[in-house]
Automatic annotation (TrEMBL):
The gene is LOC106581137. One of its GO terms (molecular function) is retinol O-fatty-acyltransferase activity. One of its GO terms (cellular component) is perinuclear region of cytoplasm. GO terms for biological process: glycerol metabolic process; triglyceride biosynthetic process. Its main location: cytoplasm. This is Acyltransferase. The keyword Signal does not apply. Pfam families: DAGAT (PF03982). Coiled coil: none annotated. It is found in: Cytoplasm, Perinuclear region; Endoplasmic reticulum membrane; Lipid droplet.
Amino acid sequence: MFNIVVKKTILPAYTCVLRGTGCILSALQSLLSVRWAWCPRLENQVQIFSVMQFIVSFLIIGPICSVVMLYLLWTDYWWVTASYTTWLVYDWNTHKQAGRRFSWVRNWTVWTYYRDYFPVRLIKTHNLLPNRNYILGYHPHGIFCFGAFCNFATEANGFSAKFPGITPFVATLAGNFHMPLVREYLMSAGICPVNRATLEFILSCNGTGNAVVITVGGAAESLDCTPGVHCVTLKNRKGFVKLALQQGADLVPVYSFGENDVYKQLILNEGSWWRLIQRRLQKILGFAPCVFQGRGLFSPDTWGLVPFSKPINSVVGKPMEMPKISSPSQEEVNHYHTIGWHNVSPGANYLPSRTLDVTGRSKR
C-alpha cells in the first residue's frame, strides 16, 4: 500500500521538481534576487549566517545558557536565575502539553534566508483534512534535519497556507527541554518532546487538525546518511504505528530528497570497534556523534560546519487512514507496519544512485 502511495504521489511530485515543471509558486516565493540584485554575494553570506545560527542554536546555545544561569547564582544577578527557576517550576508541564507557540517566531525573516540557501521546498501531493489528526513519518534524518525544521517548525515555505487548518508539531529529544531558555525557543516554533505522553496528549486531548512530525529513524538513521545514499532506519521502528492505531491518527509519509547530500560523512564499517563505540554513545547521549564535513563559513573550498548548498525537496505523500484500536495486539501493529511502511521502495529511476533500504544498511 505504502509503496503505491510513494510511487503515485511522492515520486511524481519530486520528478516534476527535477524537470522544472512543478512547484512554480514555491520557486517564485523563494526568490529574493530582486531585493539583493545589487549584491548577490552579500545575499549568500546572509543565507549562510542564517543557517549557521540554527546549527549553533542546536549545538551550543543550551549548554551556554545553562552555564550562564549557574554563574549568575554567584553574582549580584542571582535573582535572574532564581526567578527563572521559579518560572520553570510553575511552567514545567507546558512543553508536554502542546507547548506555547508564537506565530511571529515561525515567521521570522531569517527563515526565508535559511530556506533559500539550499533551497528547501515543501511539495504537497494531497490535502490533510482538519477533522483528522496525523503522524507524519519523516525520512531521512540527515545530520541536522534541515528540511523538517524549515518546513514544519517555520512558515518559510507556507505550511499553514498549503495545509489550512493543520497545526504541525515537530518532535525532538525531550532532553532539549531541560535546558533554560532553549525550551522557550523550541516551544515558540511548535517543537515538542518525542515521548509517548506528549504525543498522546497532542493526538487525543488537543482537538483535531494536529500533525505530529516524527523522524522515525532518529539518531540511528543519521549514522548512515551520506551523499547519494537513501538508507532509512525503519524495519524495527513500530512504536509510531502503535501510537497511530491507539489514537486513530492517519499516517503520512514524508521524504526529503537531498537531506543526505548537504554533508559528507565518514561512514564507519558495521562490526568495527569504532562503529560499536559510535552506536553506544548514540544510545547514551540520545544523538549520534557523527563524523561529518561541510564547507567553510567564507569559502566553499575550505572545511567547516556550513552545509553544502544542495536542494532539499520535502514531499508530503498521501495519508494512510488508520483504524482506532485502543489496545492493538503486536500482530495488528506488525500488520499495519508491513502494509504501510515496511515495503517502501521509491525505485531506482527516481533516485540519484543507490536504492532505498529499510533494513538500516544501504544497498551497494
